[in-house]
Amino acid sequence: MTDQTYVQLLDLACGAFLLTGVLVLWRRDLAAIVRLFAAQGAALAAIVIVLGVRQAATELVIVGLALGGLRAGLLPYLIRRALPERGGPDAEGRETRPVVNVASSLVAAAVLALVAYAVAQPLIRLAPSPAAHALPVALTVLLVGFFVLVTRRRALSQVVGFLLIDNAITATAFLTTNGVPLVVELGVSLDVLFAVLVLSVLTNRMRAAFGGTDLDELRELRD
Amino acid sequence: MNLTQTAFGLSLTLCLAAALAALALPRRARPAVAGALTAAAGASAVASGAAAVAGQGWSAWYPDLLPLLGVRLALDPLGGVFLAVTGAVAVCAAIYGIGYTRHGLAGRGVQAAMPLFVAAMLLVPAAAGVGTFLVAWELMAITSLLLVVAEHHRRAAAGEAGQWYAVMTHLGFAVILAGLAALAAHAGGDAFDEIRQAAISPVAASLIFLATGAGFASKAGIVPLHVWLPRAHPEAPSQVSALMSAAMVNMGVYGILRVGLDLLGGGPAWWWLLVLGAGAASAVYGILHAAVSADLKRLLGHSTTENMGLVLIGVGAAGFFAASGSRALAALALVAALLHAINHSAFKTLLFLAAGSVLHATGTRDLDALGGLRERMPYTTALFALGALAASALPPGNGFVSEWLLLQSLVNALPEGGVRHAVTMPLAVGAIALTAGVAIATFVKAFGVGFLAKPRGEGAATAHESPPTMLAGMLLAAAACVGLALAPTLLLPYLAETAGGVIGAPAAVTGEVTLRLGGIASTISPLLIACWLAAALVLVLALLRVFAARRARREARLWDCGAGPMTARMEYTATSFAEPLGRVFDNVLRPESDIDVIPAKESAYIVERVRYRARVADRIERRAYEPVLAAFAAAGRAATRLANGSVHRYLAYGFYTLTGTLILLAVIA
């Protein structure tokens, strides 16, 4: 792999990673959001595999493949199982009234990208490599994920927001270092898997108990 | 390997074994085994402390036990005194606790926390490094807090007392931590030996002394940091009350002595005038509140504040004399302070254990509902009387000897001192005299109203004597009181050596039967006083017998104004006994009373019922603490508006904080 191909492939994967993250803000249909999340998982796997091939590190490629299997396959499958069945009340399957509307959300995402770019500069100066130059992308996705948590009402959007943050953290780890050890990555992935399992169970319970998954309905639960 | 080390290690091991046994054993065996092991640990600590006082010093460093600093332990004579006192109190309390905790307090938590509390109190005077000291201090605070709230299921007051105690003790810990950390930083080392060698600037030393002094004074229950003490000490189980009131408060005095006189090497005179003033204020304020208190254990708690005040008068005087050059007097004042601390531990253990027996037998601590216990609880009554005699500082009680020594050191300062002496010492003497007078009234009230006359309540009427283990614990404490009263001369030379070592002066007290003070003409012989008093008593009784026998005895009913047999309602109660005192000291105490008169129907002149309620609130608490608490509560209520239950709002707080910090970083960088 020549230097140029490497940089182009890496930038392509990072671009896909960022785009899928921002598009989560754009779509209202929960099923579409889950598909976007799956695509982002694939992009993340691509980033890791490109890095692995570049360094000729078999272990990193294996980690990338496993990541792809988990984040583009297993996690979206689990979330999809918690989606309301088709034919139910239409409002349940859609993000009807986000706290901040879609247009403003996209503007906010642009501002967050600027912040991430500014914050990442000192980190990039530490080790100016092509991978480190892609760092603002990961930080942007992290802030966007947090933004999704704050502004989206449905429980499943919240789960996706949480997973966007986790994807971004993983991406940051791989872009700033020469690869994370397999054991560490396995541990993190297992945690995320359990979190999603628990959250999807909770979502189903919420729907059974309250008839909806709007988190603001829970306001009465405080002391 | 000397006796000090062996016995100290043994006592710590026994404490741990007691805690483990309490966790592992079944409920029925638990109090006996844990109590016996704790008592053995206490006895071993007494041996270790005595060996240390006798001159067998010991020090050790275990670098691996605590991260970074390691555990430093050392026992010198000063630490040995406090170690031995703590051990002795633990023996009495643990034996007493076997019978006391069998009914309702035999849970794992209480039984395991008690030996750990004892272990922590043994570690405090043995600590020889800042880190070790702080760990032991905090362990002592946490275990005692667990014990204070042991009965919160039964009484809501215990929970409230626990809150006060937790807040006060942790504020105290925070200032001690700050002070000692600053001390270690200035000295460039954690070990006390390094700190003693270091030169510390006067300003830094003063700040350190003030910070640590405030924390230690709060532990000793000194005004105005005493508010937790009359709440927490009564609410704990009685043997824990004894441990806290007779052993734990001493650690405050130990801290002031260790940091002020030893580590900082004396310091300027104003430090010690401050200590003396706080001690005098506590002595007077504490005993006045004890005098008007109608709750037996609360009365004893206030009396602890009083006695710690007296001890601090001695400590303050010692530091003051040392700073102004009269070292012999300083050593004498310190001996008096140490002896009073020991005496107080002895009689306060006895009194709290006896009060626990009363509570155990009658289910109440309210003096107004007690009375008439003399016939049903003869041993407890006799033991409480002995303790009350000691606490009121009358000869031949043990409190008398130490207060006499204290007065001697203060009175004899006048001829040679300057203006400061001439102003301070008479005031201090006056405070001690006033305290002693009110203390007599207080303990006459506690004993007379609580134990004599007719029972005023259901519980007092059906009281029963305590089980043998409880009596044994009280008897041990009583034996210590009698021994200290009759033969303080056996102990005083060692205390004089200890105090002389701390101050840097020759021993201030000598003598085997008659005490002679170094450089002062006064002497006293407690044993002879006791003999004379006993002889006089025998003589009076014999004369009465002789003269009374001449006339025939005649039985008659007591004069009752012709109103029929006298009932218990006609007796003096604790409240009515203390009422005149409340009037005399109206300016300090400000008792609040309200009278509700409810007239009969259709007549304004025929009264159906009159209700009188009197309450003496702590004015310091009302003026200084309640506004602060109210401000905190208001701030808390205002802050609840931030939390409206919306998950999005909570997440938004995090989001804004994160992005705000990032933007700030980006701008700064």
Automatic annotation (TrEMBL), chain A:
The lineage of its organism: Bacteria, Bacillati, Actinomycetota, Actinomycetes, Streptosporangiales. The chain crosses the membrane at residues 6-26, 33-54, 60-79, 99-119, 131-150, 159-176, 182-202. It is a multi-pass membrane protein. It comes from the Bacteria. It comes from Thermopolyspora flexuosa. Its main location: membrane. Keywords: Cell membrane, Membrane, Transmembrane, Transmembrane helix. It is found in: Cell membrane. InterPro entries: HyfE-like. GO terms for cellular component: plasma membrane. This is Hydrogenase-4 component E.
TrEMBL record, chain B:
GO terms for biological process: ATP synthesis coupled electron transport. The chain crosses the membrane at residues 6-25, 32-58, 78-98, 110-128, 164-187, 207-228, 240-257, 269-288, 309-339, 345-362, 383-407, 427-453, 474-496, 527-548, 650-668. Keywords: Cell membrane, Lyase, Membrane, Oxidoreductase, Transmembrane, Transmembrane helix. The keyword Transmembrane helix applies. It is found in: Cell membrane; Membrane. The keyword DNA-binding does not apply. Residues 132-413 form the NADH:quinone oxidoreductase/Mrp antiporter transmembrane domain. It is a multi-pass membrane protein. InterPro entries: ComplexI-like_HydComp, NADH_UbQ_OxRdtase, ND/Mrp_TM. GO terms for molecular function: lyase activity; NADH dehydrogenase (ubiquinone) activity; oxidoreductase activity. This is Formate hydrogenlyase subunit 3/multisubunit Na+/H+ antiporter MnhD subunit. The lineage of its organism: Bacteria, Bacillati, Actinomycetota, Actinomycetes, Streptosporangiales.
